Amino acid sequence: MDRRDAVKSVAFLLGGALSATTIGVFLEGCHSSGTKNSANLFSAEQEKLITEIADIIIPTTSTPGAKAAGVGPFISMMLKDCYPEEAQKAFVKGLEDVEARSKKEFNKSFLDIDAKERSKILGVIRDETVAAQKAESDKTEAERKAKENTISKKSEKEEAGKPMAAKERGKKPAYFFAIARDLTLLGYFTSEIGATQAYAYLDIPGRYDGCVDLKPGQKVWAT
Amino acid sequence: MSNLNTKATAQNTYDAIVVGSGISGGWAAKELTEKGLKVLMLERGRNIEHIKDYTTAMKKPWEFEHRGWLTEEQKRTHPVQKRDYPYQEYNESFWVNDLECPYTEVKRFDWYRGFHVGGKSLMWGRQSYRLSDLNFEDNLKDGHGNDWPIRYKDIAPWYDYVEKFAGISGQAENYPHFPDGQFLPPMEMNCVEKSVKKRIEDHWKKARIMTIGRTANLTVEHGGRGKCQYRNLCSRGCPFGAYFSTQSSTLPAAVATGNLTVRPYSLVNQILYDKESQKAKGVLVIDSESMEHIEYYAKIIFVNGSTLGSTFLLLNSVSNEFPNGLGNGSGQLGHNLMDHHFRCGASGRAEGFDDKYTYGRRANGIYIPRYRNVGGDKRDYVRGFGYQGGAGRGNWHAEVAEMAFGGEFKDQMTVPGAWNMGLGGFGESLPYYENRVYIDKTKKDKWGQNVLAIDCEFKENEQKMRIDMMNDAAEMLEAAGMKDVKTFDNGSSPGMAIHEMGTARMGNDPKNSVLNKWNQMHEVKNVFVTDGSCMPSAACQNPSLTYMALTARAADYAVSELKKNNI
Lengths: 223, 567
Fold this sequence. Notes:
- The complex is a heterodimer.
- In chain A, 58% of the residues lie in helices and 2% in strands.
- Chain A is built from 9 helices and 1 strand; from the N terminus they run H-H-H-H-H-H-H-H-H-E.
- The two termini of chain A are 30 Å apart.
- By secondary structure, chain B is α/β, with parallel strands linked by helices.
- In chain B, the strands form 4 sheets. In chain B, strands 1, 2, 7, 8, 9, 10 and 19 form a 7-stranded mixed β-sheet that branches. Chain B has a 6-stranded antiparallel β-sheet with strand order 6-13-14-15-11-18, covered by helices on one side. A 3-stranded mixed β-sheet of chain B has the order 3-17-16, with helices on one face.
- At the A-B interface, helix 1, helix 2, helix 4, helix 6 and helix 8 of A face helix 3, helix 6, strand 12, helix 9 and helix 10 of B.
- Strand 1 (209-213) of chain A pairs antiparallel with strand 12 of chain B.
C-alpha cells in the first residue's frame, strides 16, 4: 500500500474529514520555533474574513452555521497556538489571495460580496488546492519509488528492521484552503451548536446498544 | 548523634517498600498491606486523587480550548509523547515533559511515560487477556529467549484472583490457547461485528474466532465501583470508577488496611545493598520537588517502576558486589527488550446495515485470538499475532467530493454514512539479547541522574509476520462480505504499543536470568520485580493482566518467606 493510502487509513480512523495537511500537523507536529509573537498574526479585517470564509464552508441551513458557532475566532486562535510558522504564513498569504481575487473579479472586498460570489471564489481556490495536492502526492510517490529502487540495491542485512519503522512524514506544503476547511469542520462539529444541533450529542449515554433501528432524521453522534 | 540516627532510621523503616504506583505497584501495595505488612509506596510524580483530580473527565467537547489538539508549545516540550495519538489536550497533564527526563535513542524508541500516582493505570487500554501454555512454552520450543520458569497451571489461580477483584468483562469462548477467565457480562457487539463474527467463524469452522474485547471496564457494579457509562473517555480518569486503575481499585483497598503510606514526589534513585546480610536494606530517594536525598529501609522491596523505569533503577544500583547493576550476575539485566508491533491490518466497508445504528460509545472493540503457528499451522516465521478492531458508522459518504463545502455538504455530513470494519494486528516480537538498554553517562535528567540509552529494533521475524497480519485481515474481511477491503501498514517502531517488556527476565537458571519463578531476584532474595521487565517473552496479548497476576503471586510468596524467616 502506498503512502497516500497509509495517510488515508489514518484519516479513516479520525473520522475521514481531515486533510493530509491537517493530519500531518495533528499527529506529527512540526519542529519549528512556533508560537513566537503570533498575537498579531491577523489584522482585524482578516479576522472578519476568516469568519466569513468559515460561514461559506459551513453555512446556516436547518441548523446554525459556522458564524453562529464562533468558528471564526476559533480558527484564528488555532492558527496562533497550534500551527508552525510556515503554516501561519501560508494562511495569511491565502487570506490576502482571497481578498485580491475578490477585488479583481468583483471589484469589492470579499466582505462586501454576496454568498454566491464568495462560494465562487472559494470553489476556484478549492479546485486549485485539490490539483496542487494531487500533483504533490504524485511527485512524492515517484520519489518514493525511486528511493525504493535505490534501497533494494543495498544488502538485506543493512536494511533489516528498517522497513518496519513508523513512517516519518516528510514536510508537506501547507495549503490555505485545506487548513481553513479542516479547522472549520473541527471547530463547528465540536462546538456546542455543531455537536448538539447538527450532530446528536449524548453526554452520559449510560448504556451501549450495538444494534438499534436508525430513526428518521437521526443525526450522526457527536463524540 | 547515634541516638538521633537510630530514631531517624526507625521513622524511615517499613516492612516493605513498593517502588511505583501503577498497575503492578498498586497490586503489590494491596496484597502486602492486606497481609499485615506496613508498606511505603514511593511514587516519583505528583498525587492524583481519585475523581477529584480527573479535571477534564466531565468536560464537553467544546470546553476544550483546542478541541483536543496540541499547541506548538506542547509539541516542543513533549517531542516524544507527541509522536502518536495518546498525548492529547484531553489528558495532557498525565504525560511527561520529555525535556525533563530525556533518554538516548540509539534507534528510534517511543517511550510513553506518566509520572503520577496511578502511573499508566490511568491511561491504559484496559484490554485484559490471559497468557496460555502456548505462550509459556514458545521460548523452550523454538529456542528464542530462555524458558519461562512457570506454566499456565502456576498462574491460573492468580489470574482468577486478580480478575475477580479488578473486574474484567468478556465472553467465555472455550478456544484453544485462549483461556477463559472470571468474567463480568460481556459488552455487546454491534450488528456489523456480529455478522463478521458469524461469517469468519463459519468460514474457518471456528479455527478462527472473533470475540468481544475482554476489558477491565465494569459492565455491572462491582466491588463498590460504578459500571461503565459508555462515554469512551476513559483516558481522562473515570469519575464512576468504572475501569480498573490504582486509584479506583487497589489503592483504596490498601489504604483501608491502615498499613499504607504513600509518598509522592519520591524518585527512587538506588536500591541500597547490604553485603553483610546479602540483602537490600532500603532505597535512596530523591525528593523530586526539593531535590533532598532521603533513605528508607524495609525487609522487602517490590520494584514496580515500569519495565524500563525498574531496569534503570536496578542498573543504577551499583555496589562493590554488583558493579553492573543489582542482581546482575547473569549479565542479562537490560537485555531482551520487547514490544508488540502493530499498526497494520485491513479495513473494509459493510453493506446491508444502512437501517441500523448504535447507541452509546463503547470503550472496547473486538478480539481475534492467535491462530498462527498453532497446532498443525506452520509459517515462515515463529510465534503469532492477535487482532483488535471493530465496526463503526461515521459521517463518511462515498459520494462527497474531495474538499467539498457549503450547505449541502454540511447537511450530508450530519447524516450517518457508511459502516466500516477494521482489523489491526498485534504481533509478538522475539526476545533478542541485543535489543537492550544501558545507562548513558553523558547526559543527565532534571534530577541529576544519568539517563537510559535504548537500543532496540524489530527484525526479520516480525517483518515476515506483518505480511500475514495484513493479508489475513483482508482475507477475513472479504470472507465476511466486506467491500473495498484495503490493507495498511503504517509502520511500527518499538515502544509505540506501550507494551515494553523484558530487560529483567525470569528464569530457572541464575546464570541466564535475573529473577526466579517467584519474580524474586536470584541474587538478592528480598527484592521482587513484578512489572513488565520480568517477562521472558512478549506473547501477543495485552500484558497488564499478567503483571497483576504475577504481582499478587509474588507478594503471597514474599510474605510466606518473610514469615519463615527466609528473607
